[in-house]
Amino acid sequence: MMSTAVSVPRRVWLTRSRRRAIVGYLWIMPWLVGLVAFKLGPTLAAFALSFTRYDIITTPIWIGLENYVYAATTDPLFWRSLRTTLYYVGVSVPLGIVASLGLSLLLNMGKRGTATYRTFFFLPNLTPVVAGAILWLWIYHPQFGPLNYLLRLMGIPPIGWLGSVEWAVPSLILVAFWYGIGGSRMVIFLAGLQAVPNELYEAAEVDGAGRWARFRYIILPMISPTMFFNLVLAIIVSLRVFEVAFLTTVGSPNYATWFYMLHLYQAAFRDFDMGYASALAWILFMITLALTYVQIKLSKRWVYYEGEERES
Amino acid sequence: MGTSSKRLSRRGFLELSALLGVTAVAACAPAPPPTATPAPKPAAPAPPPTAAPKPAAAAPTPAAAPPTPTAAPKPAVAAPTPTAVPKPAAKEAVTVRVTYRLTDKPEMYERLFPRFAQENPSIKLVGEPVSFGAYEEYFAKLASLMAADTLGDVVWVSAGSGPFLSQVAKGFFRPLEDLVSAANYDLKVWYPSALEALKLGGKLYALPSDMHPGAQFIYYNKKMFDAASVKYPTSAWTYEDFVAVAGKLTKRSGDRVDVFGWAPWTTSWSQEIIARSHGGSFITADGKKSAVKEAPVGTTLEWLYDLMHKHKVATRKQDIAKDANEMFYTEQAGMTTALSGFIFSAPARIGDKFKMGTVRLPKGKAGKFGGMVHIGGQAIYAKTKNPNEAFKALAFIVGLENALIRALEVGGTLARRDLFEHAQLAEKGGDNWKVVLEAMADPDLKPYFTPDNFRTSEMQSVIDQNTDAFWTGNQTVAKGLDALDSALNVVLAKPR
Predict the structure, then answer these.
(1) Range of A215-229, B74-88, B93-107 with top mean pLDDT
(2) Which of B29, B158, B341, B442 has the fewest CB atoms below 10 angstroms from its CB?
(3) What does the pLDDT look like over B18-68, one tens digit per residue?
(4) Do A162 and A44 belong together in one domain?
């Protein structure tokens, strides 16, 4: 069948490459929409709100830097919560990293039942936070908890755990340790260990290197990128410690577990000081950014990438 | 090409995607407000409150209505005052949305809705439960609903530590006086102290819901009292008697305490009860300054501190997990503090182990009992389009029948006299309930300690956290009072 072909000038702006680009953007659109609507948008909105007094139900009032000044100079809980959080990070991160690495080294030995142990170690990580918190509340129970029961058996006076100013944060660190030791951090370490070439171990063995020498001069340098990744993530996650404290102590006793995120949450959802809470969120964001930047800078001294050439 | 292909072309895919996208966006558009329907007929006045059944013979009737508490009047508010105007006739039923807190028996709240519908065919009640899991969760959701202008017409509120009065001051709830008089509603059914607690600037903004007179009740284990040959306490006991009784109930092995005399609550509002009995409060009468350095608060804190650390007859912070009452249930404490509802909830935990008695905390240096109204209420959203219908629903929800179901099944007691004096509650609560009735009728029962800037939760948190140092024994009261005072003043100086 013949058709009368009418030549229509092509729209020059819709070139093949542009069409491809449009299609590409459309494919990632769901993610982009999510990013803008639920991450980037609220982040920027929070930045704008941090310069206001805003209680959700009435119009925000512009107050300039007042929220930031209040945090730094007047709010007694700002510095206190920051100190408590840094103490938590300072203890829980190294402890968690060392323990996860230790576990992954054990699992990497290829003994019988490794898969079962791996699953077993991963289980706490799969426990819902609320269930875990209730479990630990029972473990720490001053009268009926198994920990104090054991202490009494050994003739040691019972400890107040979550109700004690001295023991509250260490108790929560132990909970975090239980959660994190066999979780994704251990799996990432294990992946790193399994990527270390066998030839290196064989060469070291030929040279007479012992277990410690193999660990110090082969394993540690070879998994240093994995270590770096885990360290950055662990610090970021620990800085945001919230759920366990919220569920067990709500900052008590005497602000002992009043972490930064708890302070932020209370400002936002208990006191409805959304402007101030936004300022607190941005301060934490800047602290996290600064710590990550420092780590990246320091990493050049101790992180080794395969095939990387360094100036001596 | 003559071959017809069923494969979707790229252009076709894009067109289809765009179509689906538009459809999805359209589907996400908010539904039209349910209250937009015109009213079906002129609003009838709300029915008079259900006639109160005669109180049981055993239940004492308060001699007279407690006089209105003498708290400083709250400041004037900017709330709009829409008037109750009868609606023109229409065909469809008016929808009244009821936002309420989701407690452990959600079906209970809406159980009587069908009966309301039968009696009021022109009004359709729609329940909208909101989680009350974490205390803040409910109020955060309420604030979000207000911000989005999607709050229900009738709303459960808390005039205690909740932000109700602050929201009233910002104009989110409407005063009820016009609706009360239009419906010829009898407010005398309520305890005056309850109504007073729901007022701001002299106007009533909610009808009372659950109420209790504060943590002024001491529950004791009669078996332990008998074993220690201690007489059951009466309302004539003193704070010195209390220390002596707690001492006699305490059992030790060496330095270790096996059974405590008392497992107290140490929340700010429990401490406030004692301070009130000594004639003081943690905050000044105008709610603008800390009063912790005045004698009544110092006396309160020192007394509690001594019980824990000097006499060692009361549990310290580190001796209990989350709930001091656990020590009482398990017979590790002879006495405990709790609210009035404990009379109905505790027996299930205690079982046959022992019988429980109730007494109020002693009268303090001011020669009176401490007490504080904790109250929830049912308010009407200021922007409701159907205030008359909303009030009708509200009056039904706080009616005696609903109140009785709540009281008997969950333990919450609405502030109705005819409920507190009801034969079924008297029978269930026995002699212990008489103590509660006495506290409810106390003329010294005052509203919650609400600061002038309405930052009640924040204030309570500051008191709780700072006094923790006393209850753990990390600091003496004398050394910690300055820090508490200045931290409290920081909160009280904040804007509304």
Answers:
(1) A215-229
(2) B29
(3) 565 555 545 444 444 333 333 333 333 333 333 333 333 333 333 333 333
(4) no
Please state the ipTM of this predicted complex: 0.84
Q: pLDDT digits over B400-449, tens only?
A: 988 888 888 777 788 999 999 999 989 988 999 999 999 999 999 988 99
Cβ atoms of B250 and B233 closer than 8 Å: no
User: Domain range for residue A231?
Assistant: 72-302
| The CATH classification of domain B94-213+373-440, taken from the options 3.40.190.10, 3.30.559.10, 3.30.70.1290, 3.40.710.10 | 3.40.190.10
**Cβ <8 Å between B321 and A56:** no
- Joined tokens for residue B259: 């059974």
Residues A170, A294, single domain; the answer is yes
Q: Which residues of B touch A255 (CB under 8 A)?
A: 465, 468
Q: Reply yes or no on whether the pLDDT at B329 is more than 90.
A: yes
CATH fold, domain B217-372+455-492, is: D-Maltodextrin-Binding Protein; domain 2 (3.40.190)
C-alpha distances in Å from residue B173, one per residue of A160, B98, B168, B199, B396: 45, 14, 5, 12, 19
CB pair distance less than 8 Å for A76 and B487 = yes
Question: Is A162 within 8 Å of B321 when comparing Cβ atoms?
Answer: yes
The residue length of chain A stands at 312
A91 shares a domain with A35: no
Name chain A contacts of B489, Cβ cutoff 8 Å. none
State whether B458 and A137 contact (CB < 8 Å).
no
Handedness of CA B221, B226, B232, B238 (dihedral sign): negative
The residue among A29, A32, A167, A270 with the most chain B CBs within 10 A of its CB, best to mutate, is A270
Q: Do A161 and A214 belong to one domain? A: yes
Q: Which residue has the higher pLDDT, B167 or B112?
A: B167
CB < 8 Å to A74, chain B: 490
